[in-house]
């Protein structure tokens, strides 16, 4: 740690950094920032930086308002979009109470706690997200009240001179400058929709990287005169934006999900992990899919999963066991397909990991795999096969989560209660709206 701190202080001096942004995240997953002068960084490492936590949704109760930000020197990066005029750097922070205890409502700490629980069982949790988003010409709606995409291209389309090409190239370069490795980038299925996949990293690094990724994408969009949105379903007739996440557990250098000769080379640990995710999926959906709009994606087609089942390379299933090259057993993994791009990655990954660990601890049995296209089955066929539905609305998801011991224990009382209250309030506000659909359908007829 001292070497990392020394590196940060030396780099600030050598690169002429003028501002250091201390980044942290609220319970909803909104990135927050406090800027300090370079002269304050050494003191921030030693003592933290005090802020009023009551201004941050979910972080503290009013009578526990004072919290301290402790920058993590391992996350120090100079922000490339700031350029060479007044260079600016950032560090992610851990949040503590004044007496030095981790703040129970710090989302980053929630994930750290769950990762420590996995470490106690000998596991390291690795994740690899595929992040989808839409590029729009503006944040403004057209005269018909609809967003306007930057192109009309489709899945994997190569658009000569297209906005998306330049955008993805610039974004990938900027992410690499920030130390975030990118595996793939391409045009997705919807007009103006893009996907950028980050390389495998441990769970905490990935969550930090996702928060940085969203900021980079927004900054590059502004730079290029367009607008980026991670809204799960901005168009009713086009696919939503998911964040399919590949996961694996390692024991040292060994992939705990791999077993040579087993079906799909998937070990008992891997099968139990999937079983845990399946069993608890409805309980965690209010966090992996946390907005009213998230359920327009889950139930709006476009390859979004709607039913609780798993399959080998079956893209209609909630959990997929991907194909991989036979010589690469270490790449055994499972892919969770419900989570969307607007989730708080710290809380969502905490719950996905906790659900999988529960399956391992309790020895859950993995049900039979889904071999058919689940979307094409009738309701009675799905019932006969035991494929239950994911929650159909935010209200439904919150009511299921409210009774979940797993979610309450993983998030901690304060975060759990805040998420419930926040989402109940969102649903109540949404339910009170009179929508264009109702007016168009009912105003003249009734």
Automatic annotation (TrEMBL):
It holds the Pfam family Gln-synt_N. Its cofactor is Mg(2+). It comes from the Bacteria. Transmembrane segments: none annotated. GO terms for molecular function: ligase activity. The keyword Nucleotide-binding applies. Residues 15-100 form the GS beta-grasp domain. Keywords: ATP-binding, Ligase, Magnesium, Metal-binding, Nucleotide-binding. Belongs to the glutamine synthetase family. This is Type I glutamate--ammonia ligase. The lineage of its organism: Bacteria, Bacillati, Actinomycetota, Actinomycetes, Micrococcales.
């Amino acid at each position: 740690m001292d070497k990392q701190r020394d590196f940060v202080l030396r780099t600030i001096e050598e690169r002429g950094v003028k501002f250091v942004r201390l980044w942290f995240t609220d319970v909803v997953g909104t990135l927050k920032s406090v800027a300090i002068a370079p002269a304050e960084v050494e003191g921030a490492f030693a003592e933290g930086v005090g802020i009023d936590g009551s201004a941050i949704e979910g972080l503290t109760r009013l009578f526990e308002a004072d919290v301290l930000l402790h920058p993590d020197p391992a996350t120090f990066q100079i922000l490339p979009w700031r350029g060479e005029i007044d260079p600016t750097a950032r560090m992610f922070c851990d949040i503590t109470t004044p007496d030095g205890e981790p703040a129970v409502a710090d989302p980053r700490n929630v994930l750290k706690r769950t990762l420590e629980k996995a470490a106690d069982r000998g596991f390291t949790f690795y994740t690899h997200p595929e992040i989808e988003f839409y590029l729009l010409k503006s944040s403004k709606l057209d005269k018909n009240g609809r967003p306007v995409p930057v192109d009309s291209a489709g899945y994997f389309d190569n658009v000569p001179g297209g906005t998306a090409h330049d955008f993805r190239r610039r974004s990938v370069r900027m992410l690499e400058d920030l130390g975030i490795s990118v595996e793939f980038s391409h045009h997705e299925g919807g007009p103006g929709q893009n996907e950028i996949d980050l390389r495998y990293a441990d769970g905490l690094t990935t969550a930090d990287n996702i928060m940085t990724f969203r900021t980079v994408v927004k900054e590059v969009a502004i730079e290029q005169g367009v607008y980026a949105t991670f809204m799960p379903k901005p168009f009713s007739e086009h696919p939503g934006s998911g964040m399919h996440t590949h996961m694996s557990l390692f024991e040292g250098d060994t992939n705990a999900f791999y077993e040579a000769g087993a079906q799909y080379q998937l070990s008992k640990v891997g099968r139990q992990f999937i079983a845990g995710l399946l069993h608890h999926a409805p309980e965690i959906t209010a966090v992996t899919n946390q907005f009213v709009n998230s359920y327009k994606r889950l139930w709006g087609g476009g390859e979004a999963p709607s039913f609780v089942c798993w399959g080998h390379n079956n893209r209609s299933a909630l959990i997929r066991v991907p194909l991989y090259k036979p010589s690469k057993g270490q790449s055994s993994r499972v892919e969770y397909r419900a989570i969307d791009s607007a989730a708080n990655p710290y809380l969502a990954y905490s719950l996905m990991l906790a659900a999988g660990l529960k399956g391992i601890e309790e020895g859950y049995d993995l049900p039979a795999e889904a071999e058919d296209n689940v979307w094409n089955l009738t309701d009675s066929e799905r019932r006969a096969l035991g494929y239950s539905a994911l929650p159909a609305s935010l209200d439904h998801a919150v009511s299921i989560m409210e009774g979940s011991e797993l979610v309450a224990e993983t998030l901690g009382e304060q975060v759990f209660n805040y998420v419930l209250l926040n989402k109940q309030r969102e649903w109540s506000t949404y339910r009170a709206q009179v929508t264009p659909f109702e007016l168009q359908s009912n105003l003249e007829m009734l």
